Amino acid sequence: MTKILFKILRYSGLPFLFRETIQRRRVTILMFHDIGPAAAERVFGYLTKKYNVVSLDDFIARKPMPQKALILTFDDGHVGNYDLVPVLKKYNLPVTIFLCAGIVGTRRHYWFTYKHPAITTSELKQKSNALRLTTLREVGFDEEKEFDEPQALSKCQIDEMKNAVNFQAHTMFHPCLPTCTNEEAKEEVFQCKTVLENDFGLRINAFAYPNGDYGDRETELLKAAGYDCGVTVDFGFNTYSTDPFRLKRLSVNDTSNLDELIVKASGVWAFFKMKIFQN
User: Fold this and answer.
1) Residue 190 host element (H or E)
2) What Rg do the C-alpha atoms of the chain give, in angstroms?
3) Which long-range contacts (CB under 8 A, 24 or more apart) does 211-218 make?
4) Where are the domains of the chain?
5) pLDDT at residue number 157
6) Cα–Cα dist 193/187, whole Å
7) Please, is 209 exposed, middle or buried when counting C-beta atoms within 10 Å of its C-beta (0-12, 13-18, 19+)?
8) What is the pLDDT of residue 279?
């Protein structure tokens, strides 16, 4: 049913209307996570025909933006991102990947890949950071534990990708920052930048809030740590008047379905979801 709905919305003309009016004079930021190479070929092939892909750094530097400017971002630093390099080079795409500094370069795992039989991931996100970690230990997860197989990019892979990818910060271990104590939140924001710069030789000036969760405390921490911007998952598009620490972003769910991609990349899907939840 969802696929049918995406097809109906695609051919309703609404994505075209959003793209040619609202998006024309604004900057759209899309969020991916772990899309595969075949899907990426299909998705990026379409996006490069309909939008002008620009770098996050150019937008932060307030350089002149083309019409229908689009920024491509990936959260977490999944090991599968390494396989996207040929596609990125083929389309000459200046993507940004936000890294969890305590997980990349190790065999540690992302906490949200573990399921607890008695509590959902959504419910875990609402618990305090300490209680979330205590609960996850019941299913064999620990932030510092090294597993057999890595889930994140290795240091060698990051080194190889530096020329094609803009790597930025996504905390140390991907907690829900508002559930952290002041000390925990500061450590995640500050230490992430330090590790990525000192241990990986990266220039860090941007930050993506895990799960899009943030508040005034988090934006102030980013400013104090020396970041130039913070990327959310708040609905909308961006201009140079947008608060740089509350940049808006649209999720496209790593889809390979062009109907879904077109509807989500235009903002139509998030717009209607927002209207439904507001009511």
Assistant:
1) helix 182-198
2) 18
3) 211/125, 211/176, 212/249, 213/125, 213/176, 213/177, 213/178, 213/179, 214/177, 214/178, 214/246, 215/178, 217/178, 217/182, 217/185, 218/177, 218/178, 218/185, 218/189
4) 2-108+146-278
5) 98
6) 10
7) buried
8) 55
Contact 52, 67 (CB under 8 A): yes
Distance CA 267, CA 261 (A): 10
Question: Counting beta carbons within 10 angstroms of the beta carbon of residue 41, is it exposed (0 to 12), middle (13 to 18) or buried (19 or more)?
Answer: middle
Q: Which CATH number fits domain 2-108+146-278: 3.20.20.70, 1.20.1250.20, 3.40.640.10, 3.20.20.370?
A: 3.20.20.370
Structure tokens at 41: 């070929």
Which residues does 184 contact at the CB level (< 8 Å), separation at least 6? 129, 175
| Predicted structure pTM score | 0.97
pLDDT of residue 221: 98
Q: How many CA atoms lie within 13 A of 222 on its CB side?
A: 27
Instruction: State how far the Cα of 135 lies from the Cα of 128, in Å rounded to an integer.
Output: 11
Q: What is the mean pLDDT of each run of 10 residues along the chain (279 residues)?
A: 93 98 98 98 98 98 98 98 97 98 98 96 96 97 96 98 97 98 98 98 98 98 98 97 98 95 97 74
Question: DSSP string of 4-62?
Answer: HHHHHHHTTTHHHHIIIIIGGGSEEEEEESS--HHHHHHHHHHHHHHSEE--HHHHHTT
